[in-house]
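Dear colleagues,

As part of the handover before I leave the project, I'm documenting each prediction I ran so the next person doesn't have to rerun anything. This entry is a single chain, and its sequence is reproduced below.
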Amino acid sequence: MHIKDYMKNHFNDLVLCPPLFYNWDTGIRFELGDPSIDWAEKDKYMRQVYIRALEIYKALHNNDDELYVVTMAHFSNVPKQKVKKLNLYKRYINNKTVLKRLNLDIIPNIFAEEDEEPIPKDNTYRYWVRCKACEVRHVQLIKSICNHEVGLKPRVYQRVYFINITTGTIFHIYDDRGCDVISILSNSIQNLFEKYNDWILDYDRERINAVFI
């Protein structure tokens, strides 16, 4: 199934862009990095970020789960002939057969108003592939996503979304500060709410409690 059809059928045509949590009724926003840790202790800070992000990812995905791994990219300053060259999937998908099924959709400016003329440089390039969770080098990929804003390498600049077809959830790390998990059904992520309750972002706790308590 094309990713567009899946999102239409299961997530009411939800646009994959931040803030995912605020754009869907059933979800949890988790805090990854502890803002009270001094930046001089960057290693300590990032260690917590990695641990939390990986714990949440593993709680959401079993090895045999079917996923869409979706990357939303923008190339306003990149020559047109280089637009299709995205190495993320070669680095983090370990099945060459799956890589041959990599798809690219070019979407006109998703933030444009209805009466606004789309500008090519504002296009969004949506890369996506369907695979099993066990075919994703998730440890390396998760750490690279978390590194984006803090100047560490390796890092992934694009926004990556893990859509679990088996369970009906979407996982997105927006930066080292936190991540969003949304779901078709609250039961699918009730265990996350209970197990990692201390990690929930306090700012949104009242809204989240209203869904899961």
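Helices lie at 3-11, 42-60, 88-92, 96-99, 138-146, 190-195, 205-212. The beta strands are 27-31, 66-73, 103-107, 124-132, 159-164, 169-175, 178-183.

All the best with the project,
I.
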